[in-house]
Amino acid sequence: MSAGPWIKSSYSANNGACVEVAFASHGVLARDSKSPDAGRLVFTPAAWRALTRRLAR
């Protein structure tokens, strides 16, 4: 599962409680920056758009 670099949200505080995302050819990956090896979520591009639109409300 090849992905680009992990990106931390610009809304994240510098307290380590951050979500990071990486864009891959098959979708968007998300992980907890405090525990990057604990696993990740994989979103299809459509699911990622729906999630971010809902969060932006």
The helix count comes to 1
Alpha-beta classification: alpha+beta
- The number of distinct β-strands equals 4
Terminal CA distance:
31 Å
Mean pLDDT: 87
> Percent of residues in helical segments?
10-25%
Which oligomerization state do the chains in this entry correspond to? single chain
Q: Biggest β-sheet, characterized?
A: 4 strands, antiparallel
How would you describe the shape? Answer: globular
List the uncertain runs.
none
Task: Please give a handful of descriptors for the protein shown.
single chain; 57 residues; alpha+beta; 4-stranded antiparallel beta sheet; 4 strands
Account of the 3D structure:
A 4-stranded antiparallel β-sheet has the order 1-2-3-4. The radius of gyration is 11 Å and the shape is globular. With 57 residues, it is an alpha+beta fold. It has one helix at 45-55, and strands at residues 7-8, 19-24, 27-32, 41-43. It contains 1 helix and 4 strands; from the N terminus they run ββββα. The termini are far apart. The model has no long low-confidence stretch (mean pLDDT 87).
Summarize the structure.
Helix content is 19%, strand content 30%.
Fold topology:
Elements: E1 7-8, E2 19-24, E3 27-32, E4 41-43, H1 45-55
Antiparallel strand pairs: 1-2, 2-3, 3-4
